[in-house]
Recover the amino acids of this structure.
């Protein structure tokens, strides 16, 4: 495939491994983990794959400022702040949440990296695309050259990071002689799944793709993923057929809301840390892995299946959830 221009930011390829004790407990299902939490340090997680393409366009347009958004503990915003600092750009963040006396996790890193932080309410965040557009216009009036990145870098260009990841997965599976029946990932903005779906079609992956939504609804993400796929198809003349009906988003694991963990997720985070040395986070991967295990126990992922879980990172946000993990 002829990819759009990109910049090398992530440590790739990330390895595929089997968590021995968890895999043994599952018995009838063979589990593998794609370690995209190991794409780097400040650049760890799935967002950096997307930013490889998005940043390349920003630099091509001679941008001097990156503008983006996310939750108060946004992994994407932290990764954007990191690459902005690395390339000498300013960074403006609009973060959904509340100001707190203590600065922890990704928010601490955002500040350390020099990002301009604007904390906005959940109601204000509903109009965040308009807010970012107004900020970009304001900066242009001052002679600056801003580049706006959508939430999670989840547009057609950012999705190319996971088209390339699908190619990487295909090559790794071919090299080891392993085939998988399911590929499972968290879904918080849709770009990762969209890229995997496009990549599945281009590179001939046979696995079913399952997304576990951690906010919004399955229908919301089906619509968004479909739109991303259609735009990528159009812009790159891929000649693919993508139907909404083939997009599989599994609901039921959001809990009380985005970034609000529940007891089963906290228990699983502790279990994975202590038995596998793998850190899940309370916002994305904890809920997604909990959903995966529930799908196995309920038989919705059949016995004798081989499952690949995409670990999309998120370790820094964990530091903002100390009271959840170790309540006093």
């Amino acid at each position: 495939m002829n990819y759009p221009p990109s910049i090398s930011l992530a440590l790739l390829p990330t390895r595929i491994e089997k968590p021995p004790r968890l895999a043994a407990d599952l018995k009838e299902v063979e589990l593998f983990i794609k370690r995209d939490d190991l794409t780097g340090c400040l650049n760890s997680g799935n967002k950096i794959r997307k930013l490889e393409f998005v940043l390349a366009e920003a630099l091509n347009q001679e941008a001097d400022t990156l503008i983006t958004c996310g939750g108060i503990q946004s992994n994407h915003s932290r990764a954007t702040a990191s690459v902005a600092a690395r390339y000498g750009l300013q960074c403006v963040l609009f973060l959904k949440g509340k100001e707190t006396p203590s600065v922890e996790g990704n928010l601490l890193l955002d500040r350390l990296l020099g990002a301009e932080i604007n904390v906005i309410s959940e109601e204000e965040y509903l109009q965040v695309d308009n807010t970012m557009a107004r900020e970009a216009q304001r900066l242009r009036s001052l002679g600056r050259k801003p580049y706006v990145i959508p939430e999670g870098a989840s547009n057609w260009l950012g999705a190319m990071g996971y088209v390339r990841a699908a190619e990487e997965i295909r090559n790794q599976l071919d090299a080891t002689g392993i085939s998988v029946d399911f590929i499972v990932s968290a879904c918080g903005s849709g770009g990762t799944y969209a890229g995997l779906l496009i990549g599945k079609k281009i590179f001939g992956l046979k696995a079913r793709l399952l997304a576990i939504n951690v906010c919004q609804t399955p229908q919301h993400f089906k619509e968004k993923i479909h739109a991303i796929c259609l735009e990528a198809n159009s812009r790159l003349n891929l000649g693919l057929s993508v139907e909404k009906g083939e997009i599989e988003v599994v609901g039921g694991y959001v809990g009380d809301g985005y970034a609000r963990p529940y007891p089963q997720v906290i228990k699983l985070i502790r279990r994975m840390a202590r038995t596998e040395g793998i850190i899940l986070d309370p916002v994305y991967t904890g809920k997604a892995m909990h959903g995966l295990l529930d799908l196995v126990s309920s038989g919705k992922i059949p016995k004798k299946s081989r499952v690949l879980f995409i670990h999309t990172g998120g370790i820094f946000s964990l530091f903002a959830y100390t009271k959840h993990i170790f309540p006093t």
Summary: The longest strand covers residues 65-71. The CA atoms of residues 186 and 212 lie 5 Å apart. The mean pLDDT is 97.
